[in-house]
Write a structure and sequence with these properties.
The complex is a heterodimer of chains A (about 375) and B (about 425). Chain A has about 375 residues and is of the alpha/beta class. Chain A folds into two domains: about 1-150 and about 280-345, 3-Layer(aba) Sandwich (D-Maltodextrin-Binding Protein, domain 2), CATH 3.40.190.10; about 150-280 and about 355-380, D-Maltodextrin-Binding Protein, domain 2, CATH 3.40.190.10. Helix content of chain A is about 40%, strand content about 15%. Chain A has 14 helices and ten strands. Chain A has helices at about 1-20, 50-65, 80-90, 100-110, 120, 130-135, 190-200, 205-210, 215-225, 240-245, 255-265, 290-305, 305-315, 360-379; strands at about 40-45, 70-75, 95-100, 145-155, 180-185, 230-235, 250-255, 270-285, 320, 355. In chain A, strands 1, 2, 3, 4, 5, 6, 7, 8, 9 and 10 form a ten-stranded mixed sheet that branches. In chain A, strand 1, helix 2 (about 50-65) and strand 2 (about 70-75) form a beta-alpha-beta unit. Helix content of chain B is about 70%, strand content about 0%. In chain B, helix 13 crosses helix 15 and helix 19 (about 385-395) runs antiparallel to helix 20 (about 400-420). Chain B is mainly alpha-helical. Chain B has three domains: about 25-60; about 75-180, no CATH class; about 205-425, MetI-like (MetI-like fold, Orthogonal Bundle). A two-stranded antiparallel ribbon of chain B has the order 1-2. The chains are: A alpha/beta (about 375), B mainly alpha (about 425). The interface of A and B includes residues 78 and 372 of A.
């Protein structure tokens, strides 16, 4: 699979060069001037540590170089609905929006996002590789410019699992060995796949099985075995909190959230990387901008997704850069001084067994499976 | 207008003799009506800005949203020719549509792909049949290979085998009218199949259950607000001013605090490693390994929402109780009634308008609540509004969200009507 081999090569490169910790140099980058561009722009993202990393790696250097006034909005969680509403009202107030790949697919399908030409509107790698080749399969469609690879994975309380910490995702389904509550995201995506995997379905057959009624029933039957022990979360910050409070012994969330709970807040939590589910985050530009604003947005995206900028972001947060050429530049954490390589979801030690979340499949089956999942939850 | 003059002239004919007129010779009745009408118009002018504002920001958006629950012109707009061809085709025949339908589909899709609207249609059809979104996206990519001189049907089936499925065309044909009842059917767990309207499979039924749960829990929350709020309002109304002011501040302070803060506070209190459980374990009432589950379920939602909505019950009750003269109670007691009889026969009936007002406020607010159930409701404590929010912000199925919202709106109106019949809306006093 294209996607997988790309992720693996990204990982390999990050270890080969990242482990020898080549310090990231904020090399000066020749930026083409932006003609007839707006002087103000609104950038929408997720808030928290993630927005802070983008501000440090992209916004501040961009504003310094161009003098553009950047307004930050933290509405990415409801970006799809808001962009559609703005588009219908004919008043688009956002210029660049950070969304996950599945949302980018929806926005592009609905004709709500601009297409961005990889050859002319994105920066090539330093060695001349075109942007499209550098991103490879991570550019899930023409509207989406990926930034980071993150994963949804498990963390567990080190003091509540005894002498035998969990090693596989199936330990989540083992309530006799690891009694206590587990936190899972309140959506079918990932949970259904993990359930099937732990019920003995081969990894490459998961979506084939999930496409049948029997497969769906099988996944729910497996989830039924832990249903009474699950706390369902809808915001990524909930799991670290639940773990810190001791409300759950293990829980899934985004790996960056666990990184900050473990490394920055020194909580007694450890990562369980097995069957982590890779996902992507990146930029889209909403349709319906004036020519000046569109030019500004494209100019920003070209700058913010070049090789150096993507590598810079990983100094602030443990998400892997989406460009192959950025991997060797990943260095140490800006303030803590620790090597970021081993905390990246793409690190080979962490990614020996990963789950590749299939966007296309979910785009087709999400409405259907979500209805079933909600009915199952309410049962 | 015509009626009025007609009846006026009749009146004139009847008592022509005794008719009172103003100084300019007009009948007094007519002149009065004219003056009153002018006054009414002037009053209307005064509130015209407000009416206009409400119309533009409230009535229009609601009407627009309600329209979305039945609107469905996307199919006939995107595939105008294919829709006509498919009307002539009989899905029951067991055969695929004729070649002409595929040719029309190709012509429509070529335009749609150029305008990049085919994927939007795919998302719409996907609500009714899983896989349509992928089918249209894939076909859109393949359309540039389409050769007009080759048979269209075979080419489509080579693009994706779903184009060889009768079901695909049945769905397109069924959704081709400009208005659809499919969203409303989905909102009551039903669907239209070739056999007519049927219940959805059991593993997809959810909305009726959620509607019933929303109403039952809202009633429960309203009742607990009455039970908890009544004594507090009574104290507020009867204590000396100094202490009652203090108490009023205690009621209002949480009212002014952010909803999110109060909900999170309940999380801290109610969770298994939370304050209440810790306290109970420390006292020794419950064992450490047997802590109570009071959050992420129905209990959590009812406790948190009762607390949040309590001021809406206390304040109307208080303002009604304040107006009940203490001499009623004294008179009753002086005539030998017991405390209970005095309360039940004299005091309580006087507070019913306050209970009515408080209950309506709390119930209507509760039935549309969304944030608190989302945060503390787990799976057994979520409301229908959580699904509406999901369809607005995540699945983008606005038609279904609008249909669910419309049903909720009509449920509230129906309950309001029942309330009016039983209690009487005149019997409500907000202050």
């Amino acid at each position: 699979m294209n996607f997988k081999s790309l992720l693996m090569s990204t990982a390999a490169a990050s270890v080969m060069l990242g482990a020898s910790s080549i310090a990231a140099t904020s090399g000066s980058h020749e930026m083409a001037p932006c003609d007839n561009c707006a002087n103000e722009m609104t950038i929408v993202s997720w808030g928290g540590a993630y927005s802070a990393s983008q501000k440090a790696a992209y916004d501040d250097p961009y504003a310094a170089a161009t003098g553009v006034k950047i307004i930050n909005d933290e509405s990415s969680a409801e970006a799809v609905a808001k962009i559609r509403a703005m588009n219908e009202a004919g008043n688009v107030t956002w210029d660049v929006v950070d969304v996950v790949a599945a949302d980018a697919l929806r926005l592009c399908d609905e004709g709500l996002a601009e297409e961005i030409d990889g050859a002319t509107e994105l920066a090539a790698a330093p060695d001349g590789t075109s942007a499209d080749d550098d991103f490879g399969a991570l550019r899930v469609n023409e509207c989406f410019v990926p930034q980071i690879v993150y994963s949804t994975t498990f963390g567990y309380r080190t003091d509540k699992v005894g002498d035998t910490p969990p090693t596989t995702v199936c330990d989540v389904f083992d309530t006799t060995k690891y009694p206590g509550k587990r936190a899972l995201q309140k959506r079918p995506i990932d949970n259904m796949e993990w359930a099937l995997y732990c019920d003995g379905v081969a990894k490459d057959k998961i979506y084939e099985v999930l496409g049948t009624d029997e497969g769906v029933a099988q996944a729910f039957a497996k989830l039924d075995t832990i249903k009474g022990d699950v706390v369902w979360w809808s915001a990524g910050a909930e799991t670290p909190q639940l773990l810190a409070d001791g409300e759950v012994v293990m829980g899934s969330t985004f790996n960056g959230r666990l990184f900050s709970a473990i490394v920055e807040q020194k909580q007694p939590i450890a990562m369980l990387w097995d069957m982590q589910s890779f996902d992507l985050d990146g930029w889209i530009i909403p349709k319906g901008l004036s020519p000046e604003r569109l030019a500004r947005a494209k100019h920003y995206v070209k700058f913010a997704t070049d090789t150096q900028r993507l590598a810079d972001q990983s100094k602030y947060i443990s998400y892997g850069p989406a460009r192959k050429s950025s991997a060797p530049l990943v260095g140490k954490h800006e303030t803590l001084g620790i090597d970021m390589g081993p905390h990246m979801p793409t690190d080979p030690a962490n990614s020996s067994n990963v789950h590749l979340y299939d966007y296309g499949w979910w785009a087709d089956n999400r409405d259907d499976l979500d209805a079933k999942f909600q009915a199952w939850l309410a049962k | 207008m015509v009626d009025q003059t007609a009846s006026n002239s009749q009146l004139q004919a009847q008592d022509n003799v005794s008719l009172l007129t103003t100084h300019d010779g007009q009948p007094l009745k007519k002149s009065l009506a004219k003056a009153l009408r002018r006054e009414k118009l002037r009053a209307l002018l005064l509130i015209a800005p407000l009416l206009l504002f409400i119309f533009l920001t409230f009535i229009l958006p609601i009407a627009d949203m309600l329209m979305r629950s039945v609107e469905n012109d996307i199919v006939s707009n995107t595939l105008p020719q294919a829709v006509v061809e498919l009307q002539a085709w009989d899905p029951q025949s067991g055969e695929l549509p004729p070649e002409s339908a595929y040719v029309a589909l190709a012509a429509d899709l070529k335009i749609a792909v150029k305008e990049k609207i085919h994927t939007r249609l795919g998302s719409r059809l996907n609500y009714d049949k899983a896989g349509m979104s992928g089918l249209f996206r894939k076909t859109g990519r393949e359309m540039r290979k389409f050769d007009d001189n080759q048979p269209a049907k075979d080419q489509f089936i080579s693009f994706d085998k779903d184009w060889g499925e009768i079901e695909t065309f049945t769905v397109i044909r069924r959704l081709s009218p400009n208005y659809t009842d499919s969203y409303f059917l989905s909102s009551v767990d039903r669907e239209r199949t070739s056999l007519g309207v049927q219940m959805k499979p059991e593993n997809e039924q959810i909305y009726i259950k959620l509607f019933i749960r929303t109403i039952m829990m809202s009633i429960l929350i309203t009742l607990s607000c009455v039970l908890l709020g009544y004594p507090v309002a009574y104290l507020l109304a009867t204590l000396p001013t100094k202490s009652s002011n203090m108490l009023l501040i205690l009621v209002l302070l949480p009212f002014w605090t952010s909803l999110l803060v109060r909900t999170s506070a309940w999380k801290v209190l109610l969770q298994q490693q939370g304050v209440i459980n810790d306290l109970l374990v420390w006292i020794g009432i419950i064992a450490d390994d047997n802590r109570l589950v009071m959050i992420n379920n129905m209990t959590g939602t009812i406790i948190a929402m009762t607390h949040i909505l309590l001021p809406f019950m206390i304040l109307p009750l208080y303002s009604v109780m304040k107006t009940i003269s203490p001499s009623f109670v004294r008179a009753s007691k002086s005539m030998g009634a017991t405390d209970w009889t005095t309360f039940w026969k004299i005091y309580f009936p006087n507070t019913i308008p306050g209970i009515g007002a408080g209950s309506i406020l709390v119930f209507i607010l509760a039935i549309g609540y969304y944030i608190t159930p989302e945060l503390v409701g787990g799976t057994s404590g979520v409301f229908i509004s959580n699904r509406i929010a999901y369809h607005i912000s995540s699945s983008l199925n606005w038609g279904l969200a609008a249909a669910l919202g419309a049903i909720l709106l009509f449920l509230v109106l129906a309950l309001y009507w029942v309330y009016d019949r039983i209690v009487g809306i005149d019997n409500v006093k907000l202050g």
